[in-house]
């Protein structure tokens, strides 16, 4: 088993950040480590314990390059539509996101989390469907962090979900939910991020 970082549960939960600029693109990521982290991730709950999730792990440079190009195309449109960052914090996020879009193909491993819909039309409220996939994807991010790896939660490639599915041979009934670029991190000293004041978002016994 891979040696784990010395982190308390609270430290793990509060320091698993979106990592973009600090992904180590030069250090290979063994597939065994990804599998080990996925074993942890798949302890997450799923509706009816049906576990309809699927995980497409990309290590082939040609496949990564094709997926990364669709991500970059979608990111450019998103960035242009968003206008100038509103403040210094937003500018830092934008700069690191720019970086990730440019180097996505160089990230050692890309993981796409997907779920089998059974071919049914997606309901208007899709919480039940995605609630059976996304907790496992976040568990995976936590398990990777515990092993000295980082990732960033991304969904922009979904603008080209059909094209990516064709590249990877994903059946029509399987829908993609998240793309996680995975690499070892440059250092492991991540800190909790700023969040809104608790009293602004907490509602007890009603709104």
TrEMBL record:
Record-level Gene Ontology MF annotations: oxidoreductase activity
Domain of life from the UniProt record: Bacteria
Coiled-coil annotation reads: none
The reply on keyword Oxidoreductase is yes
Read off the SUPFAM superfamilies from this record: FMN-dependent nitroreductase-like
Query: Oxidoreductase: present as a keyword of the record?
Result: yes
Q: What keyword terms does UniProt attach to this protein? A: Oxidoreductase
Nitroreductase domain mapped to chain residues: 17-182
Under the heading InterPro entries, the entry gives:
Nitroreductase, Nitroreductase-like
As given in the record, the signal peptide range reads: none
* Family the UniProt entry places it in: Belongs to the nitroreductase family.
* Protein name (database record): Nitroreductase family protein
Q: Which organism is it from?
A: Nocardia vermiculata
Classification of source organism: Bacteria, Bacillati, Actinomycetota, Actinomycetes, Mycobacteriales
């Amino acid at each position: 088993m891979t040696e784990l970082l010395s982190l308390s549960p609270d430290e793990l939960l509060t320091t698993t950040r979106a990592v973009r600029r600090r992904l180590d693109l030069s250090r290979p990521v063994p597939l065994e480590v990804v599998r080990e982290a996925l074993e942890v991730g798949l302890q997450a709950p799923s509706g009816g314990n049906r576990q309809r999730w699927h995980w497409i792990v990309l290590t082939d440079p040609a496949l990564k390059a094709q997926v990364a190009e669709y991500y970059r195309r979608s990111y450019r449109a998103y960035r242009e539509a968003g206008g100038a960052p509103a403040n210094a914090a937003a500018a830092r996020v934008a700069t690191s996101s720019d970086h990730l879009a440019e180097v996505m193909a160089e990230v050692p491993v890309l993981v796409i989390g997907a779920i089998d819909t059974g071919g049914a039309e997606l309901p208007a409220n899709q919480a039940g469907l995605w609630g059976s996939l996304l907790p496992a994807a976040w568990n995976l991010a936590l398990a990777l962090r515990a092993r000295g790896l980082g990732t960033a939660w991304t969904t922009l490639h979904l603008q080209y979900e059909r094209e990516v599915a064709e590249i990877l041979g994903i059946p029509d009934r399987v829908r993609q939910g998240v793309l996680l670029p995975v690499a070892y991190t440059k250092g492991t000293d991540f800190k909790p991020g700023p969040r809104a004041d608790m009293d602004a978002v907490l509602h007890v016994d009603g709104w």
